[in-house]
Inverse folding.
């Protein structure tokens, strides 16, 4: 049976998020100050805040940009409470789809790879089904405890496109019950970490991504590094316990 291709618009709201270690001096200086001032400082390399310690834990003589403070997490993704839309597509002549990398190849060029078979009014907004959740929360009460480090969460909230995924079937309809997401929960929002269909991870295509800034948020906290290493394990196809996540849904998968 011929293959069928279903392109998924992953949602219109989300953004970039980082979580990275900062110096104790930076934490103590900013913890009781306004978030708006901290955001201004991070966007201006500290200009106007000459008495502020620099944030970087590795090199205190260098004022790190917010997106460089990311040793615990860095991502750009839609919020987990977005809905998604599915469009069946047909590949144009001489176009192929690389399911390993999520890329279209060949064809006439100019990103003219496919025709949409589903009219806009027939594209329903569907709710994501969560298969797993990873927690990335700090706890300010842990300041000074062994193995705990001060961190800065930083989030640029945006509206636009945050990538698309393509589901390929052997002729079958797209089944929403087989489409799942792994979620990251943080102190500044919940984001989609990865997409799965029929127990296989889907690569994300960012070719058509475009977004506009809607706001900026930050949060200082303290991360227990041992707990983070033990429990923060986003899903991947090579993790030994992956099958356990699907066993409860074998009847629909």
């Amino acid at each position: 049976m011929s293959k069928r291709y279903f392109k998924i618009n992953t949602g219109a709201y989300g953004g970039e998020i980082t979580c990275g270690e900062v110096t104790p001096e930076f934490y103590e200086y900013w913890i009781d100050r306004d978030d708006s001032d901290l955001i201004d400082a991070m966007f201006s390399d500290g200009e106007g805040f000459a008495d502020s310690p620099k944030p970087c834990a590795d090199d205190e003589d260098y004022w790190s940009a917010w997106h460089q403070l990311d040793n615990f997490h860095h991502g750009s993704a839609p919020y987990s409470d977005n809905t998604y839309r599915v469009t069946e597509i047909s590949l144009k002549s001489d176009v192929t789809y690389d399911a390993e990398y999520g890329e279209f190849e060949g064809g006439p060029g100019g990103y003219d790879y496919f025709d949409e078979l589903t009219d806009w009014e027939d594209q329903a907004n569907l709710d994501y089904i969560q298969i797993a959740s990873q927690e990335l929360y700090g706890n300010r009460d842990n300041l000074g405890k062994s193995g705990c480090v001060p961190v800065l969460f930083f989030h640029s909230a945006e509206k636009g496109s945050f990538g698309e995924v393509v589901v390929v079937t052997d002729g079958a309809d797209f089944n929403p019950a087989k489409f799942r997401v792994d979620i990251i929960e943080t102190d500044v929002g919940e984001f989609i970490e990865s997409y799965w269909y029929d127990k296989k991870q889907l690569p994300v295509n960012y070719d058509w991504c475009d977004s506009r800034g809607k706001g900026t948020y930050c949060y200082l906290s303290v991360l227990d590094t041992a707990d983070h290493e033990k429990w923060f394990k986003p899903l991947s196809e090579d993790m030994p316990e992956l099958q356990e996540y699907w066993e409860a849904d074998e009847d629909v998968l």
Observations:
- The longest helix spans residues 35-43.
- The mean pLDDT is 91.
- The first strand starts at residue 4 and ends at 9.
